[in-house]
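Retro notes
What went well: the complex prediction finally ran end to end.
Inputs used:
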Amino acid sequence: MIVTLSRIIKYGWRGFLRSGLLSVSTISVMVLAAAVFEGVILFNVIGRSAVSSIQEKIDISVYFKSNVHEDSILNIKKSLEKLDEVKNVEYISRDQALEEFKKRHADEATVTQTLEELDINPLLASLNIKAKEPSQYKSIAGYLENADLQDLIEKITYAQNQIVIDRLVALIATLKTGGFVLTIFLSFLAVMVIFTTIRLAIYSNSDQIGIMRLVGASNSFIRGPYIIEGIIYGIIGGILSFLILVPIINFISPYINNFIPEINLRNYFHDNLFSILFYQLIFGVGLGIVSSIIAVRRYLHI
Amino acid sequence: MSARRSILYSRFASNKIGMIIFQNVTKNFNHNAVALDKVSFKIQPGEFVSIVGRSGAGKSTVVKLLIGEEKPTKGQIFFGSYEVNKLRPREFPEFRRHIGVIFQEFRLLTKKTIFENVAFALEVAGRPQKEINEFVPQVLDMVGIKDKMLNFPAELSGGEKQRVAIARAMINHPDVLIADEPTGNLDPYNTWEVIKLLTKINELGSTVILATHDKEIVNTLGRRVITLDGGKLIKDEENGRFIV
């Protein structure tokens, strides 16, 4: 058993070395496919961050009439927090609102001047509400409009922002579905390309497989070395594509950072270095093994 | 005979496979073409039998059926205790280790060296490396090609390739050695070298079945001849001659 296994590994390794140009081209294709696979992983990371960064920016604010007492607002806050759809509610008192307003317009002399001339605080207290899912804003807005709160509420921003929110909800849904479809499609493409390449490489050996059968080799003894070759292709392809992606990621990371400030691709890549390499290897080796087994199978019937 | 060679010679075991029997064997490759038509014969252990006939007479079909590369349409084929037509795919490797086969087109493993080609037949049988390192050079020496041990098949001439094929076929001390037009691609000198080797292997105890259309070889050998014509067995005689 151990003797057979060591012979299989020996022949797999020699077969790889002696295939020369064929090995080089198989590995090249493997590198491309593994890079596509890695690209898909990173695309998903970017996509998810982009979506959540858009989601973070959506909220609705409820402004209360100036005569409403803080206790009532806090009661409404509590009742909102009990809703399933609500992720969090932030209370901004009139004083806080004024302070923030001042801070925001500190450089604008006319604004600060006007404020100082006013005796009263013109700003209203508000609740900033974030939903768990963007599609839930509608029902939260509905809750606020239906409850007996009409007397207390000055305005709800949902009405003004409804179109924008709806568009964003649609955009997020499209991004999610598109990302999923693209992931499936590209992974399928990578798998098919590798499978075809390995099948062609083994096809050129089909007469050799027939000879081995006639000399009395068992199927596992014939298949074994091809599986070892597939594993070698997978390992080398995975590592090479990883090494190629490192400088590419370092290069594009700042551009993506400009586009979506929340995501730092370089940091993500460096933090997940080993798991990405691990997935690459699993992807390459797994595909190498499966393609070899399926390809050799066809020629084992003599 | 050197002491080392005698070890090798002693490895040629008595026939475990026993008698070969073709019983009313018919083979159709498609509905109209009959490759073999109710062919029956027996071959005793240790015999040297030539199967002769024109191209397309059915010689290669007999060989393919014997080694299980094809299945008969009708009839039975026995190889000692093996009923070849009923063997399952996973039973073939063990069965084929009792047989050595030589083909006109050599059928060597092109990506393996000469040493590895011959060693392969022992490796598939799970023989220890020590034995392989000892016997492979001996057999290559016997067929006169030991100095090319580390070359690849592409670097050898036709005659040399056929010697490698013979070495591979005989190293497992087969009960039966089947040669399908082994001299078809060889010049006269190499042809007789190959025939001499086959005779030698037969003397060592292996049954030899030689499919050929070379009249001169068959007539010079003066052994049993089975003559096929159009898929039918038309003659089977001891000390036969090639007359078609």
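What we learned: The beta strands of chain B are 20-28, 34-43, 48-52, 74-79, 82-83, 99-103, 176-180, 207-212, 224-229, 232-237.
What to try next: split runs per interface for comparison.
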